[in-house]
Each structure stands twice: as C-alpha cells, then as structure tokens.
From TrEMBL:
Transmembrane segments: none annotated. The keyword Repeat applies. InterPro entries: CUL4-DDB1_E3_ligase_receptor, WD40/YVTN_repeat-like_dom_sf, WD40_repeat_dom_sf. Keywords: Repeat, WD repeat. SUPFAM superfamilies: WD40 repeat-like (SSF50978). This is Uncharacterized protein. The lineage of its organism: Eukaryota, Fungi, Dikarya, Ascomycota, Pezizomycotina. GO terms for cellular component: Cul4-RING E3 ubiquitin ligase complex. The keyword Repeat applies. It comes from Fusarium piperis.
Amino acid sequence: MALYDVRFLTRNPRGARPLLKFQDHRNEAHFHIGWDVSPDLNVVAAAQDNGTVKLFSLRSGRQLRCPTVDSTHVDSPIKALMFQRMPRERLPSLFVGEGPSLRKFSFGAMEWEDEA
C-alpha cells in the first residue's frame, strides 16, 4: 500500500514515486477489503488478507501497535470497517464488521510522544 500525490502522476502511472509506503500492509489478491482513513487521528485502518486489521501512521507509514485491534482475526478478509465520530465523543472510533458482529475501537495517545 502506498500514498501518492496525484498532482505528480504522469500518463505512465508507474513513473510516479509514492510519498509514503506502508511496508507492513499485506493484501495479495483482494479488491473488496476494508480500508479507511482518519485525518483527525492521522491513521489508516486496513484489513489484511489474513483476516486481521492493522493501523498505520499517515506521518511515517509505520504500523501502529494496538493490542485490541491486533487481536481482531476472522476466517476471511474483513470487508467493512470505517472511522466515525459519535455524538459527544471528541475523536473518531473505528468500527469493524466481524461476521454478524460490529466492534468499536476508541483511540487516544497514552504518552505525549506516542505517534498517531
């Protein structure tokens, strides 16, 4: 997975270099897979082809460790996930569809230096 600035794309899309690469993202062959961005959190949530979800920093591209999100695991790739801010909540939460269930993950930095 990579982030591009479309202003610099040429007629040959392979000629542009990504601004950021998300090295730990794994998706070999699935098009309909969950993916969303939270500009408020500077985070990308991306379903992986092994039935897990990973969080990535929009600043560095690095995987962000979150034990509760990392514990998500189903038998096939997750197709539905999205960030949404609920009434009376300051920051968006991540909603993940796991079969018939919907899980909500809320976020915040534990330490001032934590990357988000």
